[in-house]
Specification:
By secondary structure, the chain is an alpha+beta fold. It has helices at about 80-90, 135-145, 170-175; strands at about 5-10, 15-20, 25, 30-40, 40-45, 50-55, 105-115, 120-125, 150-160.
């Protein structure tokens, strides 16, 4: 599988997250990088021998338009649970070009009614490796996107590691896209 990389120059100072530990730091204007992945609403960029994740809201820092979240969440009024799962499919592991649902990182999604007609959503998320520091970033992205669905009133995302994740949790589509 051949992947294209795009060279970029950071046009302004910007906060990024180091992959895989999730540490945040600032990159200076003029820093050179290569986009390795631009999926969902964030960018994975190779900078000075390391990978970093740039939030889509900061896309202007590399001369790109802010990526819009796919309209999957509100495209049809039907089943709320189905719309939540479609929304979670817009979240990507920053190192693997497959969404977190197809990777099998979502262990559960429970809905509970709230007063006022809204819904509380409890999501169980795991990581491909327990030591990965990107859990907080992925959890926050999932929570923000699901909370943007009109009927959702609150979201909790719990990071779980039991049972441990392994490749058997990946969908057939994920395995095929990764050439496995």
């Amino acid at each position: 599988m051949r992947r294209q990389r795009e060279s970029v120059v950071f046009r302004r100072p910007v906060q990024v997250e180091r992959i895989p530990d999730g540490g945040r730091f600032e990159l200076d204007a003029g820093t050179l990088g290569e986009i390795t992945q631009a999926l969902g609403t964030s960018f994975t960029i190779h900078v000075d021998g390391r990978l970093v994740r740039l939030k889509g809201a900061d896309a202007d820092a590399i001369g790109k338009p802010v990526p819009l979240a796919p309209a999957a969440a509100d495209d049809e009024p039907g089943d709320l649970q189905a719309r939540i799962w479609r929304t979670m499919k817009t979240c990507y592991d920053p190192e693997i070009p497959v969404d977190i649902v197809e990777l099998g990182l979502i262990y559960g999604c429970e809905l509970s009614p709230m007063e006022g007609g809204r819904t509380s959503v409890a999501i169980k998320l795991t990581l491909t490796a327990p030591g990965c520091g990107m859990g907080e970033a992925l959890g926050n992205e999932v929570a923000e996107k699901v909370l943007a669905i009109e009927e959702v009133g609150e979201v909790s995302v719990d990071l779980v590691f039991d049972p441990p994740w392994d490749r058997s949790r990946m969908s057939e589509a994920a395995l095929l896209s990764l050439g496995m």
